[in-house]
């Protein structure tokens, strides 16, 4: 290629972005988004992706009514029927091909960055708006919201909320437009409870800019909240619940307040220097000391003092931009406050929870930069270069983090070196033990999980690994320990069904019949429709020569657990023949 041809290409590329139009900016956002997140498109299902999609039969058929009722998405205090419908729709078309889940999720994120550019353009110049939107697009803290399929709710609730906000940014609002606005807000809340933040943002914007319609908007917002709770309580039957397995949720309100300084510092530090990105963070601050309480508190005070003085500076220079600064400050505060454990959430902190608050922080930065005048062209050129370098560095970090999400074992093995805890050890043990059948490696991680924090599930997992290794005495020991531990998952029962069934099947072949019989009865009091426990009771009664009781129990075993094993036990008891084995699967 000749030098003249190169010059023509350089000129044409420059001419494409100068002057910058909305269409050109969105083109760039799409191109950058596809490049930066391209290495996550072929990642597999990771973490709760398997639970919510692959192993969740409830979304393997598109039954919209049932997806608004109690199911895996709508339980334990959370009510998220729209993601259930979303995943059921994709599954109906593409089944378990992860690429399509990733590409749709990325498309929503890119659309959000484009909407954000349009929003910022209402307050700032186009080039600053593009820079802020690109930071939102490629920031590494966004990887969890974009690469983690089960977190699709983060970009999805934001998408509906942003559309509602745009429609509300008009002086005169018709009844039809008002209805559409709050329907979109309702959809946002039905995606994730965090959507309530857009209800607040719309009200805040109307209060700051168009006060004459404020009363109408407030009434509409109230009706939206009432409608949401009517759907949640009336159709879903989902009320609020305390997630006691999560350490932060076991703390009192005062104890959770002790964690607020560290939580705020975590998000600020991660935004400014996104180095240590980790999932499943369950740390807590339970002691007031210098490193865990006072130091974060001092940094937080300095940070908010800086925001205060920046706000005063903006007010002094340009009152109109001070209104902008105030709007995004309130955006940041309501978003951060919602995730600061004022009411307990299911982790201490999570990258995806900063999806909303980041906009407020970027907006404040934009309001400050907007009033700075670059009179010297060289300074302006340096500023452009710095902006490009920032975008490139953030993009590279994001691509590296995307690679961590390639599969569950890679993600857990990486994050466990940064921040180890009982839950991530338990998940890694599951990858090795349950999926790979590598029982030794699974056992190692399950036992480490128990060392961090013991509860029924992870103790049971240790027992199961021992059983799969053929070490029945150790298995029996840990199953027995599991029945004495705290149960967090089966809320309506004393213990998990699996714990009863695995231990019962071991007792019937290793202990005296009366021991197995008494245990089976105990389990059946908790789970009266467990076919496996009825079979344990049947065999125990048969060994005790209680033919009639054995046949009755075997009949119920066939009813609740039909199959070859139930048939075999029933036939052997009926014909008074020896029962050689009774094992689970």
Radius of gyration: 29 Å
Number of strands: 2
Strand order across the biggest sheet? 1-2
Q: Name the average pLDDT.
A: 91
Largest sheet: 2 strands, antiparallel
Q: What is the SS-derived class? A: mainly alpha
Give the helix proportion (percent range): 55-70%
Strand content: under 5%
Task: Extract low-pLDDT stretches.
Answer: none
- The CATH superfamily of the domain at 422-574 is identified as Tetratricopeptide repeat domain
What is the fold named in CATH at topology level of the domain at 422-574? Serine Threonine Protein Phosphatase 5, Tetratricopeptide repeat
CATH architectural designation of the domain at 422-574 = Alpha Horseshoe
Q: What is the 3D shape?
A: elongated
Number of helices: 28
Distance between the termini: 67 Å
H/E series: HHHHEEHHHHHHHHHHHHHHHHHHHHHHHH
CATH class of the domain at 422-574: Mainly Alpha
Q: What's the helix and strand layout?
A:
Layout: H1 3-17, H2 22-36, H3 48-54, H4 64-67, E1 74-75, E2 78-79, H5 81-94, H6 98-121, H7 126-138, H8 143-147, H9 153-168, H10 175-191, H11 196-209, H12 214-236, H13 253-257, H14 260-272, H15 290-317, H16 319-338, H17 357-370, H18 377-404, H19 408-415, H20 422-435, H21 439-452, H22 456-468, H23 472-482, H24 497-510, H25 513-526, H26 531-543, H27 547-560, H28 564-574
Antiparallel strand pairs: 1-2
Structural notes for this entry:
It is a single chain. By secondary structure, the protein is mainly α. Among the domains are: 245-372, no CATH class; 422-574, Alpha Horseshoe (Serine Threonine Protein Phosphatase 5, Tetratricopeptide repeat), CATH 1.25.40. 69% of the residues lie in helices and 1% in strands. The chain has 28 helices and 2 strands. Strands 1-2 form a two-stranded antiparallel sheet. A hairpin with a 2-residue loop joins strand 1 (74-75) and strand 2 (78-79). It starts with a helix and ends in an 11-residue tail after the last helix. The mean pLDDT is 91.
């Amino acid at each position: 290629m000749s030098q003249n041809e190169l010059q023509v290409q350089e000129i044409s590329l420059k001419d494409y972005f100068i002057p910058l139009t909305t269409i050109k900016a969105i083109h760039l956002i799409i191109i950058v988004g596809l490049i930066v997140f391209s290495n996550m498109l072929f990642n597999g299902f990771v973490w709760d992706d398997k639970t919510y999609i692959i192993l969740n039969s409830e979304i393997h058929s598109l039954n919209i009514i049932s997806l608004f009722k109690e199911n895996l998405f709508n339980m334990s205090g959370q009510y998220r029927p729209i993601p259930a419908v979303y995943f059921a729709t994709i599954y109906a078309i593409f089944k378990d091909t992860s690429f399509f889940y990733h590409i749709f999720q990325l498309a929503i994120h890119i659309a959000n960055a484009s909407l954000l550019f349009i929003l910022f353009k209402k307050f700032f110049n186009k080039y600053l708006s593009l820079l802020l939107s690109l930071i939102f697009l490629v920031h590494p803290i966004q990887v969890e919201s974009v690469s983690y399929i089960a977190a699709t709710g983060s970009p999805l609730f934001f998408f509906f909320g942003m559309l509602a906000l745009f429609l509300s940014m008009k002086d005169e609002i018709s009844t039809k437009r008002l209805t559409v606005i709050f329907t979109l807000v309702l959809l946002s809340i039905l995606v994730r409870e965090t959507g309530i933040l857009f209800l607040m943002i719309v009200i805040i914007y109307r209060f700051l800019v168009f006060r004459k319609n404020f009363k109408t908007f407030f009434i509409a917002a109230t009706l939206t909240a009432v409608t949401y709770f009517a759907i949640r309580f009336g159709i879903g039957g989902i009320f609020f619940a305390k997630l006691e397995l999560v350490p932060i949720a076991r703390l009192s309100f005062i104890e959770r307040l002790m964690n607020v300084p560290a939580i705020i510092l975590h998000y600020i530090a991660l935004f400014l220097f996104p180095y240590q990105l980790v999932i499943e963070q369950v740390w807590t601050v339970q002691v007031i000391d210098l490193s865990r309480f006072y130091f974060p508190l001092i940094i937080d005070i300095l940070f908010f003092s800086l925001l205060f003085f920046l706000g005063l500076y903006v007010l002094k220079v340009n009152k109109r931009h001070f209104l902008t600064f105030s709007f995004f400050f309130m955006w940041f505060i309501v978003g951060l406050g919602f995730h600061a454990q004022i009411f307990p959430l299911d982790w201490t902190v999570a990258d995806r929870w900063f999806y909303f608050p980041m906009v407020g922080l970027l907006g404040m930065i934009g309001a400050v930069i907007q009033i700075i005048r670059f009179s010297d062209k060289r300074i302006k050129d340096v500023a452009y270069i710095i902006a490009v370098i920032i975008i490139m560095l953030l993009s590279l970090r994001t691509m590296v983090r995307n690679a961590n999400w390639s599969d569950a074992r890679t993600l857990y093995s990486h994050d466990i070196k940064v921040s180890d805890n009982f839950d991530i050890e338990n998940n890694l043990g599951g990858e090795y033990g349950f999926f790979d059948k590598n029982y030794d490696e699974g056992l190692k991680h399950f036992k480490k999980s128990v060392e961090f924090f013991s509860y029924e599930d992870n103790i049971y997992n240790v027992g199961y690994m021992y059983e799969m290794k053929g070490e029945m005495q150790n298995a029996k020991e840990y199953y027995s320990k599991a029945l004495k531990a705290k149960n967090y998952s089966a809320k309506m029962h004393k213990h998990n069904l699996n714990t009863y069934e695995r231990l019962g099947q071991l007792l019937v072949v290793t202990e005296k019949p009366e021991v197995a019989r008494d245990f089976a009865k105990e389990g059946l009091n908790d789970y009266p429709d467990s076919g496996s426990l009825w079979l344990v009771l049947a065999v125990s009664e048969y060994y005790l020569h209680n033919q009639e009781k054995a046949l009755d129990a075997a009949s119920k075993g066939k009813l609740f657990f039909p199959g070859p094993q139930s048939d075999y036990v029933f036939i052997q008891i009926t014909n008074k023949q020896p029962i050689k084995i009774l094992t689970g699967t």
